[in-house]
Amino acid sequence: xxxxxxxxxxxxxxxxxxxxxxxxxxxxxxxxxxxxxxxxxxxxxxxxxxxxxxxxxxxxxxxxxxxxxxxxxxxxxxxxxxxxxxxxxxxxxxxxxxxxxxxxxxxxxxxxxxxxxxxxxxxxxxxxxxxxxxxxxxxxxxxxxxxxxxxxxxxxxxxxxxxxxxxxxxxxxxxxxxxxxxxxxxxxxxxxxxx
Length: 195
Description:
The protein is α+β, with helices and mostly antiparallel strands. It has a single domain, classed as NADH Oxidase (3-Layer(aba) Sandwich), CATH 3.40.109.10. The chain is built from seven helices and four strands; from the N terminus they run H-H-E-H-H-H-E-H-E-H-E. A four-stranded antiparallel sheet has the order 1-2-4-3. Helix 2 (23-34) runs antiparallel to helix 6 (114-132). It is globular. The two termini are 33 Å apart.
């Protein structure tokens, strides 16, 4: 499959089966992470945590579930959301995915901000690798942001990261519960001008 065809199948899956991924899929996804571009080739400043333990994911979900109670704030963050969806609440910010990979980065002093670019490149590379394997995936920001906003429910220590590292983004991966069909690529989504 060429790259543009791959992008047509790239979707954010928000419902997964409970089937766990085989190790060869995880190895391929980790290879994609290692193949992503990283500023100044500083791969030593990045650390991945593969979480497949439901108890740990449930612990990491507590702040998101609590934050969802502030319906006005959720509408502000998400934008258009039906009242029915808002009132259903949030039971699992990881959408039932059996695997969530957190991308952590060492805090930066020399090139502040580069950590966000690095982590985004790595997460998107894993997202595309999952797509190429017929898996579903979705980038995870809300759970980590919720723990930053509700510090008493910040359970990131359960990730047992090396000193000086902070989880900045996650990616939930698994077998999608629904078929992810191809979509047309639309060049009008992002305003562009030429000089």
